[in-house]
Write a structure and sequence with these properties.
Elements: E1 8-13, H1 28-42, E2 47-52, H2 60-65, H3 70-94, E3 99-103, E4 112-113, H4 116-124, E5 128-132, H5 142-152, E6 157-162, E7 167-168, E8 180-181, E9 183-185, H6 186-192, H7 199-207, E10 212-216, H8 222-227, E11 234-237
Parallel strand pairs: 1-2, 1-6, 2-5, 3-4, 3-5, 6-10, 9-11
Antiparallel strand pairs: 7-8, 10-11
Length: 239
């Protein structure tokens, strides 16, 4: 397989990607699987920033919908991303991948506080950087955090890993007649209200012309293929 088309990427994973077949939390086998997929990307000499959601532990929106204060609920969700980030750091380091966790919420006894200067230093040293605690602010999802961090570090592309092989006009896990898109524009995603990322994340990518690659994380080697230019999912870009 050819080398990577990109020097620096931002990889966005859902918290559910770490659950495997479990109903909640982190399944060690999935953690190891994801870590090895990331290592395969790092072996291509790609500089990697990683954002992990927290849907396997707690979603702020879900908490707010059940009556919690939205700010408190989102803060809980951001803290849950730190748990996932530390678990992924451990899994990566166990297979020999140097890694740092940088949190938008200061917690110096647990991980480093996020700054762009620190991030770029670690990336240049060949370390995987995991961005924890979202943007550090309520009302923003980890999708938006992923696009924001991708823009800040100058990532060549945003890679969104999902449970299906791209973006469909409706949920393919529920509808047999769902149609997959090979390519989409940001405007089409917003107009069709496709739920690949929230509207704030898509708008931010559109305004800054940042390409998004969406692919199936559960197929081994798909991250490798995506960054090597093989369209094995859906590409979201400008007009």
């Amino acid at each position: 397989m050819s080398g990577s088309k990109f020097k620096r990427v931002l990889l966005k994973l859902s918290g559910e990607a770490l659950m495997g077949n479990a109903a909640y939390g982190i399944q060690p086998e999935m953690l190891t699987y994801v870590a090895n997929e990331v290592k395969g990307l790092r072996d291509l000499k790609v500089e990697i920033g990683l954002v992990i959601g927290a849907g396997n532990i707690f979603r702020g929106v879900a908490g707010a919908s059940s009556g919690m204060n939205r700010g408190d609920a989102d803060n809980m969700g951001m803290l849950a991303t730190v748990i996932n980030s530390l678990a992924m750091k451990d899994a990566l380091e166990r297979i020999g991948v140097s890694c740092r966790v940088l949190s938008a919420i200061p917690m110096p006894t647990v991980c480093e506080h996020y700054s762009l200067a620190k991030t770029c230093h670690h990336l240049r040293k060949g370390r995987v950087v995991i961005f924890a605690a979202g943007t550090g602010n309520p009302y923003f999802t980890t999708d938006t955090a992923a696009v924001l961090r991708g823009l800040e570090i100058g990532a060549d592309v945003i890679c969104k890993a999902t449970r299906v092989d791209g973006v469909y006009d409706k949920d393919p896990l529920r509808h047999d007649d769902a149609v997959k898109f090979d390519e989409l524009t940001y405007t089409e995603v917003l107009r069709r209200q496709l739920r690949v990322m929230d509207s704030a994340a898509i708008s931010l990518a559109r305004d800054n012309r940042k390409t998004i690659l969406v692919f199936d994380m559960n197929q081994p080697g798909n991250i490798h293929k995506a960054v090597c230019g093989e369209n094995n999912g859906t590409i979201i870009k400008g007009e």
